[in-house]
Write a structure and sequence with these properties.
Layout (H helix, E strand, L loop, with lengths): L2 H28 L14 E7 L6 H7 L4 H11 L13 E7 L4 E9 L2 E8 L8 E8 L3 E10 L7 H7 L4 H11 L14 E11 L2 E15 L2 E9 L5 E4 L20 E4 L2 E5 L6 E4 L2 E4 L5 E3 L4 E8 L5 E6 L4 E11 L8 E2 L4 E5 L9 E8 L2 E3 L1 H6 L12 H19 L2
Antiparallel strand pairs: 1-2, 2-3, 3-4, 4-5, 6-7, 7-8, 8-9, 9-10, 11-14, 12-13, 14-21, 15-20, 16-17, 16-19, 17-18, 18-20, 18-21, 21-22
Length: 416
């Protein structure tokens, strides 16, 4: 090749190679070099996460994720020492860790918003069989105070609906019902324009709200009444609720055996046209219309006198209380577990579910009170119930400081 041609050829080759060289330089700047001595390590375990299916037992859950039957049985047996596997709740979050060969290594499963079940495989020692370390572990929690005001209105005709409009869970309504249950029947006493102001605790986990703690203070404005509730722990360390003068809000009986939303469909009467038989007869209780399955609770501490079929009354629970009182709960769809004659119950304990057994045209609770063997009007009788014990004189100064602090916090939070 002539010299001139060789020069042109070299220039063309250099021009062609220049972009390749630049591209190689760009790659070297941005991609870490791989050593010939580096080895890719195989994963040793895999994690399966999900939610507990409906009607699934712990054994079902484990075996559905390839845990051998004999291993699953050993895990369930070990768990029974610290937690009842039958209490495993549907839709609880779980995580199962196993080796790539399918051997079980660990399980974590939520029990409730505050705790989870932990199971870890324990290596075999000296050639023996391995076991399992099982524990119920509390989640780290943070409790913060919050406040809100909710009003009964045409659009939100119950406390539950008013709180729901503020994006609060029904559990907050139930906590408030527990505080004011001796003063107000939330099923019938609240009217449009009534309002609740409350200072309460939110429970957080990893920054997310997971539930409520308790009610610290609240003011219920109902008609011309303003009922104040202050949480205060006395010398025994147990918190209770008192009005601003230190009088207990607790009464012997709750004003209603039902949670929110029911309505009084028939009152106490000496003569009422029976909806089924068409004749006029006495109605010795108060009928609450409520969806089938609604919780029915004991209005006061007492002993189960009977839990049986009562003819037209359907499934009925009768409770005996102090002071010559008995309460009766008729037309139940079911009795609560463990409810039978002779069992002691506390105020607020579940005793059954609303139904329409016996002579009933729809699901409702017929609630009755007997005093010294004679039926009395539940609404009128409850209004006469005396209050519980007030704050002891020796604790009034401490109560006053706590009352002022909580009410100031409530007003400041609501900016009133």
């Amino acid at each position: 090749m002539p010299p001139a041609s060789r020069l042109v050829y070299s220039a063309v080759i250099a021009a062609m190679l220049a972009p390749c060289s630049a591209s190689a330089d760009w790659t070297e700047d941005r991609v870490a070099p791989v050593s010939r001595n580096d080895l890719a390590l195989a994963r040793e375990t895999e994690v399966v996460e999900g939610r507990v299916p409906n009607r699934s037992t712990l054994d079902d859950l484990l075996r559905a994720h390839q845990v051998p039957a004999v291993v699953s049985a050993s895990i369930v047996s070990a768990v029974r020492g610290v937690f009842d596997p039958r209490q495993l709740r549907a839709n609880s979050a779980f995580r199962i860790t196993r080796t790539m060969a399918g051997e079980f290594r660990a399980l974590q499963c939520d029990i409730d918003p505050d705790r989870f079940l932990s199971v870890e495989a324990r290596p075999a020692a000296d050639g023996g069989a391995g076991g399992f370390d099982v524990a119920v572990v509390p989640y780290p929690r943070e409790i913060v105070s919050d406040a809100l005001s909710a009003e009964i209105s045409r659009e939100h005709s119950s406390l539950t609906a008013a709180l729901d409009a503020r994006h609060e869970n029904v559990q907050l309504a139930l906590l408030l019902a527990d505080v004011f249950g001796g003063e107000i029947d939330f099923n019938s006493d609240l009217q449009r324009g009534d309002r609740i102001d409350t200072l309460f605790e939110r429970v957080k986990r990893s920054g997310a709200v997971v539930g409520y703690g308790g009610i610290e203070a609240a003011i219920l404005h109902s008609g011309s009444r303003a009922i104040t509730a202050i949480r205060f722990a006395g010398a025994d360390g147990k918190p209770a609720w008192y009005d601003e003068l230190g009088r207990s809000l607790k009464r012997q009986f709750l004003k209603s055996p039902l949670p929110f939303e029911p309505r009084i469909t028939s009152g106490f009467s000496a003569s009422r046209l029976h909806p089924i038989y068409g004749d006029v007869r006495a109605h010795l209780g108060v009928d609450y219309g409520a969806p089938a399955g609604t919780s029915v609770v004991a209005v006061a501490a007492g002993t189960v006198e009977s839990a049986d079929w009562a003819g037209d009354g359907g499934r009925m629970v009768v409770l005996r209380h102090a002071g010559g009182y008995e309460t009766l709960y008729l037309h139940l769809s079911a009795f609560a577990p463990g409810i039978h004659a002779g069992v002691r119950v506390s105020q607020g304990d579940l005793i059954g579910r609303v139904g329409m057994t016996g002579a009933a045209t729809g699901p409702h609770l017929d609630y009755r009170i007997r005093k010294n063997g004679a039926y009395v009007n539940p609404v009128a009788e409850l209004a006469r119930m005396p209050r519980g014990e007030p704050i002891a004189p020796s604790e009034m100064d401490a109560f006053g400081h706590e009352r002022d602090r909580l009410l100031a916090a409530l007003n400041s939070s609501l900016k009133r």
